[in-house]
Structures
1.
Amino acid sequence: MNWLLPGGVSTFAGDIDRLYYVILGITGAAFVIVEVALIWFLIKYRARPGRKAYYTHGSVKAEVIWTTVPAVVVVMIGILSGGVWNQIRGRDSVPPGALPLAVHAKQFEWLVTYPGPDGQLGTDDDFERRNDLRLPVDTPMVIALTSEDVIHSFFIPEFRVKQDVVPGMTIRAWFEATATGEYSLACAELCGNGHTTMGGTVTVLSLDEYTQWLADPSRTVASR
Amino acid sequence: MGQASVAGVVNFQGTAPANPTIDMAKEPTCRDKYSSAPRDPQVLVTDGKLANVFVYVKSGLPAGAKYAAPATPVELDQEGCLYRPRVFGVMVSQTVAIKNSDALMHNIKAVPHENRGFNISQPTAGMTTTRTFNTREIMVPFECNVHGWMRAYAGVLDHPFFATSAQNGTFTIPRMPAGTYELEAWHEKFGTRSATVTVPDTGTVRVEFRFSASTS
Amino acid sequence: MATMAATIDHAHAHVDDRSFLRKYIFSTDHKIIGIQFLMLSLLFLLIGGLLAMMMRWELGFPTQPMPGGTLLPETMAPGGILLPEFYNSLVTMHGTFMVFFAIMPLLVGVFANYLIPLKLGAPDMAFPRLNMASFWIAVPAGVLMLAGFFVEGGAAGAGWTSYAPLSANAEYSGVSLGQELWCLSLVVLGLSSILGATNYITTVINMRAPGMTWFRMPLSIWSLFITAILTLLAIPILSGAAIMLLFDQTIGTTFFLPAEGGQPLLWQHLFWFFGHPEVYILILPAMGMVSDIIANGARKPIFGYHSMVYAIIGIGFLGWIVWGHHMFQSGMNPTLGTTFMISTMLIAVPSAIKTFNWLGTLWRGNIRLHVPMLHACAFVAMFVIGGLSGVYMASTPVDIYIHDTYFIVAHLHYVLFGGSLFALFGAITFWYPKMFGRMMNPLLGKAHFWLTFLFYNLTFFPMHELGLQGHMRRIYDPTQYAFLQHLQPLNEFITLSAFLLFAVQLIFAVNFIMSWWNGKKASPNPWEDTGLEWSTPSPPPHGNWPETPTVHHAPYEFSSPLVQEDYLMQNRKVEGAPAAAASRTE
């Protein structure tokens, strides 16, 4: 078993993972410092008969240090995070020319609407697949997420994508897969008694294969 | 209970609409039970006869007559990600035994208007859950939200005089007491048809219902 | 109830003329009410734990018949196999019981009640009858919540957060009455909390003994005071939201149902606007009591007492502007995400201040590792993990991945179990002699501590790993997902650890109950502490002191050069001591 994060296969997975490891480094250091100090003090200053503790009420200098250092560190993490967040979720983050898909969540299925050969959603050649998300590699995709009933959450672990799907709202999520293959789609928000079954497959195809499939979905259904 | 019976057939005129195919691709457990792409059996017509029509006595029974519900339950099976039977009748307070024959999870949601609904699930094969209904209702729909196409319909009646048309369109309502009754036939796509019959003390009364493709 | 009888025997030592009923059942004595809350919330802690065991069975051994599961009705576990809807009820009710009926009343109901008058030198609460009402309102709230398991459709199953629309329309969840009872119970419990909070605030402001200035109050009282303010302001929001949800369920309003123009995110905003202050309600009192215990164990004044007070106030204030960090992936405007990230990052600062000050208190101490001290140090060690893991989800991009996964489950249990519950075990052991006049057995106490510490970490630490592999929360059967199947051995390991964790709590239960009978008789001040409560007999008589004590010193004058002993009680007058100096730090 790989104990670290599973391999990321989207353009922003690397940024998210890097941020994770930065935080792991910082919090790991803080963790070690505090726990080592705690255990060391507990051993070193354990009660001995006839001794009194050092009588002090504190030190302004120490307070200043351990107020400002954590403050600077967390603000730094905040700035780093804000940048990545903006790239992924910022106002203009969806790359121009991203290919559209519509995903409608309902208890307990993901219904994916494909644009058909014309590449346009909302036309007659659109078709729908259940729990079966296919998309081209190295191509930004923008997914219009809607829900029939309750809140679901659109989660593709390997893409580092998670977006709640809220009834009454159309929420756009975008990503760009960087490797072909088969991945998992899961619902990450408790949505009722079939929540656990609400999964699907994500198949990343080459752009050619994807275009072919849009043109004739029945042909490639069996091959994958 | 009487000794006469009402028997008949449900005819269908015109070309039956094609049943939609079911996208079972991501449910191999169920898909593998079919040799060809499974279709949702909404309209079943064989040689001009319509199956899955629920025929029941709508009115005409003596006021205040009470009929005991049978002790044997009605079984509603889930197999190959379809309900079997799709259309059935059950008496008030008679047990419906809902069974899962698939090695996957089904959820069963009944959304009646008159009765109390339920929304339960069966995670493993062989699981059986029993439920009853308290009030007459035509029809109580069942659905599975894990497999959105799955539908079944139950006619809940306070008397035992009902039947569902078979593959060849025939039905028989046995042990009818003598009298004049209004019968109704219900189909999920084509609505209802009515007929009035007068049942003698013994023997069989024939009745025919006619549905057509044009009305829906 | 055997446990009740034991308290009663004990308190018979004191002569007063109240009837049995007024003394022990409908008592207005803050000490009895505190003990009543203790019994009630320990019972709910046990229930909450049992529910967790069933969840863990399902996660470790999905869709396998649970041993003893056939005892459950068919609507919960036919043939012993837990149903998904029952699992959802377990998830929901475990969280609800633990948060609202175990941790919160243990911290506030028990210790605010017991400690505030005793530590401030007051004979009782400002409003004793309000106090009694607060307990007797909490009881039916608990009954209502528990009743959910026995009604058609089962107990509430939309999570302890009860996100609408799942919670707002029975058609979506299959739970109707159970979900309504959930709302109703929380509204009733809210009334109890509001009465309690009003009482605590008034008592702290008005009933302090002569000389008990604000900055001579122990940190436990400071944190309980700030907690009471948070409670008074936050609970009405929950009550309002719960009533709106109840109306959506029952009388056809559509506050949270989008089909008729409602907004599901409104529920989340209301819930978390209450819910995040609630998180601090669940940790601040623990921090305060841990401070008391650590000063006692280290035999040193609290390092940076004033910073500690300001940190408590800072957390109390910042707690109001971070609720959006629960909603980064909710569909809320992403720009707000950045705002809430900054405020959330900032709230790490007062937590860091507190942690370093605890370490500073231990530094050059003369540390007695008695059982309460072990728990208090475990609190610090575990709270650090829970606090640091919070930084991951505060970082909006990292949260995209770990939101709604087991990483969150690990985090919240490090704070609520590793933090609050360890603090509570410590606090119960520490104040047990004052409450019941007898000491808990230290050997059993140590065995309980070390085994709990071990199995606790074996249970919850691996959950971080589950989360990092993408394991979602609240799923009934992880093996349904290809990418989670390789985690099943880990899930089994966690389940076995959790069973052992639950089992070793028996040691605590035995110690708690048996010590009533055969515990060592407690002197008035068995821990050689400085607080006012230790200057009156154990247990204290009705009215607490024959005469109101006068306070001369700061709260944690351990190892003071003014006296021979290594502790100087707050009300001990020392000739030649500078009157004000002791209340100043630095």
2.
Amino acid sequence: MNGQVEDSILVRAAQDGDVDAFEELVRRYQTSVYRIALRMLGSSADAQDAVQETFVRAWRALPRFRHDSSVSTWLYRIVTRRALDKIASRRTTGTLDEVDLGGGPDPVQAAEHQERFRAVKQAIANLPPEQRAALVLREFEGLSYQEVAHVLGASVPAIKTRIHRARLIIIRQTSSWQ
Amino acid sequence: MAVTDQAESLPCGVRLEELLAQVADGAPPADERHQSACPYCQTALRRLRRGWADVTDFTQEPVNVPRRLTAQIMARVRVLAAQTADFILLGHPRGETRVSDAVVVRTAQRLARTIPGVVYASARVEQHDPPLPDRRDLSMRLVVTLGPALYRLADAVRAIVRRQTPRLTGAQLDRIDIRIDDITR
């Protein structure tokens, strides 16, 4: 039923202290926020931390939310910053979770599939953090270059360069491209 | 194979990243006539499409959000909300009872949602003027369906909230302001 209620109404209610309205926003956006964190950090435990911190920060920052950007853009900005901070505080690359593909009917095919995905995941994890953030927002969340630029606070040409370079690195690491 | 983030060009001069943008974004080729006749571009495009398919498949893999994540987030948010919440104070000879304003708000919301036509209700309590320990004013915002007369619907919400909230929470409500923010089908 709450799906019929626009984000802006829920945000105003949450700004008035309505915790239930905020919970509805959490339910609406936690999947995409979690996916961004997971693909940037590579670990489910780190991603969960980042998502919790994202929404707690969002709750604290609600009084300053001025409705001049969408809720998704606002949350994506917070989660990418949290993830970038976590990456910066790591001394080494974090441990990557296994890719769970479930039980396919053909074990050989499933193993090949898993191997290809593992290679993509590792290639993403090897990207410089700023490139990784831009690529995740573009390829996983389907944001336009302009939206990615808005979330990351960079110019559109700078974002295009980051994404193009990230793609080249991934294609070289995951295929037999020479 | 050495990995570098420098852009590369094919022997025909076309930049690899341009072809990759074509594959990943569906961007049109910069020079369609050249590309359709160029063996280097055609070979590169075939290989890039094959390689990029793995990335596309991976981006479409469903992500399983941990089951308890919402509860964990909301537990932390509720602690923060409680730190700033006020209480109504119900006196009793053997002690006092405090009921958070948040409880009054949630009670009013749930009562409002029992009225047919109310899709969503939010509420905010305000200190009564002059401040009294068990008295509050209430501001409510509604999203309603198209159909019922809005003033009747607002009256019905006001009536049930005024009647039931004191019974359930002990809070005495004076003003109940209602604002209808949106209408749905």
3.
Amino acid sequence: MAKGIRDKVAILGMGCSKFGERWDAGSDDLMVEAYVEAMQDAGIEPSQLDAAWFSTHIDELGTGKGGTPLSIALRLPNIAVTRVENFCASGSEAFRGAVYAVAAGAADIAIAVGVEKLKDTGYGGLPVGNPGTLAPQVIPNGSAPGNFAQLASAYRAKHGVSREDLKRAIAHVSVKSHANGAKNRKAHLQKAVTVEQVLNAPMIAEPLGLFDCCGVSDGAAAAIVTTPEIARALGKRDLVTVKALQLSVSNGYESQYNGWDGSHFHTARIAAGKAYREAGIERPREQISMMEVHDCFSITELVTMEDLFISPEGQGWRDVLDGFYDADGGLPCQIDGGLKCFGHPIGASGLRMLYEMYLQLQGRAGERQLKDPVFGMTHNLGGAPASNVCSVAIIGQEGA
Amino acid sequence: MVGIAAWGAYAPRLRLSRKAVTEANAWVAPNLRAKAKGERSMANWDEDALTMAVEAARDALGPDDDRSAVDALYFASTTAPFVDRQNAGIVAAALTLEKSIASADVTGSQRCGLSALGQALAAVKGGAARRALVATGEHRRARAASTQELDNGDGAAAFVIDAEGGVAEFLGQGSVTDDFVDHFRGADSDFDYAWEERWIRDEGIVKLVPPAIRRALEVSGLNASDVSHFCFPSTFSGMAAGLAKTVGIAPEAVRDNLALTLGEAGSAHGPLMLAHALEQARPGEVILIAQFGQGAEALVFRVGDGVGNNRPARGVAGSLADRKDETNYLKFLTFNGLVEWDKGMRAEKDNKTALTTLYRNQDMILGLVGGRCRETGVVQFPRTRISVAPNNPGVDTQEPYRFAERKASVLSYSADYLTFSMSPPNHYGMIVFEGGGRIMMDITDVEPGEVDSGLPVKMVFRIKDVDEKRGFVRYFWKAAPDRAAMAKNTALAAE
């Protein structure tokens, strides 16, 4: 395996807009909001930026294609802007591009910005996509919740879990995230909910009810990265460095070959294994201090706990019900509210996850602050269980 | 001896209660209460004349998916989805028939199903075809609160014709062509326009059908008294019995026209009654099937010794048994496009079909043909240049592999209330096939709570989407519960 990215790149500054139904803001406004915060945090001038990576998924809703939307919104000094798109993991891709450019020495300081403006469709849920010319002739008339909901039936079948037990476990996932989101002023949804509310909510896609689905939000997030040496030269102390960046992409094994059982993410297991090796982590359940995972739906988060090798296979639902992933549990998860409550502006989400990990590692997370975190992990998924891209990143205290 | 080698039938599962219809319409049409008896078959929203004909044809052809022996195809319907795009071509693609077959759409009158059958028999008799397939289907629309709405049914029947005719030997045909306009449906009309029933009966059926029957019997060298099964579809009560009396056919030979159980499936109804007769007839018996429509068509068959050995898996008997009560008249109206309902913004997506893409992937989309790696035997859908086999991704090693007749089951599923569906919630899931391969696909003919991992399913050819803007219909395959396999599993579990 390659030597990897561990401790080669430091985060110089980060920013994140308020997520939510931002009727007041277009994608350019959201990008500026995240950018201004990140630049102030980094303490640099625009002229010090060498290159930019820009992530957005649904460009046809108004953000537009290419690198120009970012360059124009931020008035960047005619530097390179690379637009990336990798479904809901696009934000992690922007970060990966910026980090690799710095690690390669091609840029001293690079910025990654992700944005999504979803609430201009006129209806709830994600926009109906345009899947090209062949797919609509064969794929089901489905939706994101319907695709992810399928994990539940396969998980039940594989592990012999009853409908009721699994429904209660995924309800706990959402109750926990709502409790966390209630402490986050930037979160889309800031109200706590009860298990009963979750269980009795209208059905969206069996067995997922309304509260099993994440917020569909507008928002942007940004990260500025550089080398640890330049960061120190700029006066930064107690650096947060990148420990691992992995991405695993489906090749049709899950959707076309009779090997995958439908109950887990094949790619997540590959990406997680590689990320732990890259970061030098051998006992993730003990060593990872906190994590932000891609909880687009409650069932996704539940099976991800196993795919990241935190919970033993088939036992994730028990850990969830035991409160292991609660804010006061053994491994706090979605401490900022997650996609569930912070919200899910697609192109920004990967960077938003890193934003919370970064704040926590710097001790700046306010009333959500966890005690002495060392490693923060993010898991950012795009696509659907049967065909997806899965990004796993680990950041932490320099030298840890 | 040219004749029928195999037959098949299909009726949609839903059976609309006539009482539900007449009660809903009693305020405007109280006289229809007299027609409140029984039920009629009701196509699901994703079924039409063509999809039903495909299912009947599959029933006739049997589970063997090598259809290379079929060299001619006749598709008959007055409600085919396309006026100018050969419907038989879609049927042929769905059945993965050879490209070299002769094919034709037969249409234009209620007797076109029998006309197609006659043409297929003539083609085989004349040597132009060796194994001809006749597929008929009908899905007629009728105005709300009309008698047709109650009388009609949806259904299909199919026959395989060859030179041996082991199921039933073809003896003769009689035809009458006369532009007697009992009803019509113009090229731009959705509904029939019918004249007075008494005139149709007395001046039409009574005068035009007997000559066709007499001619058919004469050609066959038989007397009317030789007929043991007389099939004549008509919504007029006692019509078949009256005709039988006129021509001298014994009253006990007159067959049930399925009015109370299925309703009348237009041009497919004569064929359906013939299929039903074959299922109940004994070797040596004579079947006379006639149907009216701007003249008449009459065909005579003698049941052969092969009738017992060539029974279809479903047939009419199976179709009658596989039923589900439907008492929701509004659902019927909605499925038939008779209600302007709020589909929501998610239904606004453009369903324009790229015809280039459709043709390039024709066997995949219409035939459900995937691939099998010659080197590893790994089966996959769709067929691709590089095999999906994880340890041996061979390049260009795949040969076509048909999925439509394979046994399958549900690996994972959801019932989706968010996405647009004509019959929410939309069920779909990962379907895994015995012998390998899997497809994420829509699941149809199910109710909430019916699906779970492990459910046995079969493949059915259905409407995928309708492009209302351009008048195009997209077809693809869906999974439907394999109720025969389910019953078998239940029986095994009980033991």
4.
Amino acid sequence: MPGIEDKLYSLSRFERLSLEDTPIHRIDPRVKIVLTLAFIITVTSYDKYAVAPLLPFAAFPVLFAAAANLPGTFLIRRLLIVSPFAVAVGIFNPLFDREILFSIGGLPISGGWASFVSILIRYSLCMSAALVLTATTGFYRICTSLQSMRIPPVLTMQLLLLYRYIFLLSDEALRLSRARTLRSFGAKAQGIKSTGLLLASLLLRTLQRARCIHEAMSARGLQLTLPQFENPVIKKSDLILAVFILTALALLRFFDLTGVVGGLISGALG
Amino acid sequence: MSHHDIVLTDLCYEYPDGTIALRDVSIRIYPGESVALIGANGAGKSTLLRHLNGTVIPMSGTVVIGGLPVVKKNLNEIRRRVGMVFSNPDDQLFMPTVAQDVSFGPINLGWSLEDVSGKVTAALESVGAAYLADRHPFRLSSGEKRRAALAAVIVMEPDILILDEPVSSLDPRSRRLLIELLKGLDQTMLIATHDLDMALNLCQRTIILSTGRVAADGPTHELLEDRDLLESNGLELPLSIHECRSRR
Amino acid sequence: MHMSDALLSPVVGGVLWGICATVIAVSAEKLKKDSDTAKIPLMGALGAFVFAAQMINFSIPGTGSSGHLGGAMLLSILLGPYAAFLVMVSILAVQALFFADGGILALGANIFNMGFYACFLAYPLLYRPIAGDGTRRGRVFTAAVTASIAGMTAGAFSVVIQTMLSGISSLPFGPFAAMMLPIHFAIGIVEGIVTGFVVLTVHSIDPGISISRPLVFSVKRRKKALVLIFAAAVLIGGLFSRFASNYPDGLEWAVAGVSGGVETESGESGFFAASSLLQERDTDNPETTVSGLIGGIITLIAIFLMGFFLKKRAGKASASRGGHAGN
């Protein structure tokens, strides 16, 4: 089933990428989380018709991804593969918002089209920020650093287990699904009943496995107070970087860089 | 009294549906011994093993580990002394990285984080798995998983090691590697296995379990050369003995 | 139904995150009182299960499209509302971080839309009473379907509200709701059937798995839930009445919109005044906008060039370090 295989591949690719060793990978995960959030908040704080002012923000995901040696094509594919709700809703903007905002060389651009493009840009910026965060940090490190950010241990421990078993269970789901297809001989293998049976069997295995995992955890001393995993100390360089990025975000937000650049170019061209 | 011995006295256990799993099992395992526990499927091996770290509390009879009876209040201490390696390493490696999994036990034991990281590295090195530290268990081979699971248990420095089918579904080389590793350990060991050749290789003493009872208990080379004994308990001669004899 | 960062304003996203953070904290506290450590591996494993199960699509009869299990209802039945909610948090977090499904700012909204209604309203107030002791198949199916529909439509409705409040989309309430609600109603029916089927099948094979009492027992106070539902009803009703008073029937809206007879709204009362404010443009001068665009594109090109060179350097650096060991 192409969907499952693609997702499994993507998960394991991310996991491998997160093990690389670049300066970006070495930044404390908590700093990266905060910066990513600040970035997203800044980008989404623009009004609906903002197009040009959003473009310079691409610097953050692009430069971070480059410095972390992340494969561009893989990330772009991840952005495109999801059929996002944002696009499906945004595409109605041109339909409902027809007031002309401005013209480019004689071609009138309506507010609807401008806001649609804005939505596309926001989507690309915010999603790539999240992907860069994941690819340079890795889920496991995100979880352990969440623990130190006072997220309840029951949530983080359960997140870790989930991440551990996602691969295994997806693989089992894939095998069950293939086995079903092999014995369907072209007939509609996707009926509700047959899917329900497949899910039920996967669920039973999962519950059984959960019991075994619990035995294994208890055998190694699982208590009600869950183990706290160590977190690296935030380095000075991380803090300096954080201040730099936050300042850059604020400057970009309130200072129209693109207007200046555009003005210079138009001025230079006469 | 040693920390390293196991004494089972008249142990009985019955499943919820009424099937009798263990019947009057009395065994004494001495410090430092390597004992193989063999028997047909359903003979009760796994149930027996699960009594040894308090996963199952005896229904009747007693289990005493290193002088401590297996009752609720002793469970934590017993689990510190008895390390159990499960038959399915995927159930045992439950953390997203091998290093984190190996550190799970020590952190729960309350060791300081500096100690933990040193011991984790040492344990992984002792099983030849240092390079697996940051790997996700899903991407390991069967042999690597089993070695990682072993490291996760020996890092806790148990007095007694219990292993359930440690070499099943391993390729010959991984199997050989694991057997050599186990040979090098000096804990008291009880190994449940179908691999009779490994039992010959590794364990001086063998216990045969059949329909919940101890059918035989003696030196490995004696029991495993006795065809009638083995076959009457749902087993067969080990391959190596088989070959020796067929060459005569 | 995943809400996206691209359609969200920081205020709406932040408020929803605030709500979710509170609910997460409360759920974790409730679970602490449960002394059974078995719930932790159970939650993790079931989370992985739902994640894997979501990849198995089934065709929805009569529509020609396919859907997949949402999972919140199934989790609630097996784990109880608090644990189920936390598992939904985890699943949605993984989807946001790895699959660009939603977004980090929108994660709070998604958790609320896809977790809160199902776990804390639909499950205790619809599933539990209707399913009773779980001995009758028909009742379990009815319970599952009703609860799933309620959860799904409430969630879909919330998506509409959150999008409107953010003011990035220009889709008016009427057509938007007309698009979202019927589809999610249908998805709810199918999800309910699949959930009911799975739960009954699993229970028949292993009667130890209860359909009426969750595996992880959690304390649930009826009164608190009723208060919650009343509050939600009041909120939804209040907003609804605002729309109803300002706009004609949703269908008329849709028709009018498609036929091009729509103009952008000018200062209506209440909600819409707020969203009009959000739609203020930076400038009304078309020339400034065009040069801004040019500047933007040039900046973008510059950024990508920089990125290209940076990556080359990073690639060389990792190659000289010997690359990643042992793949």
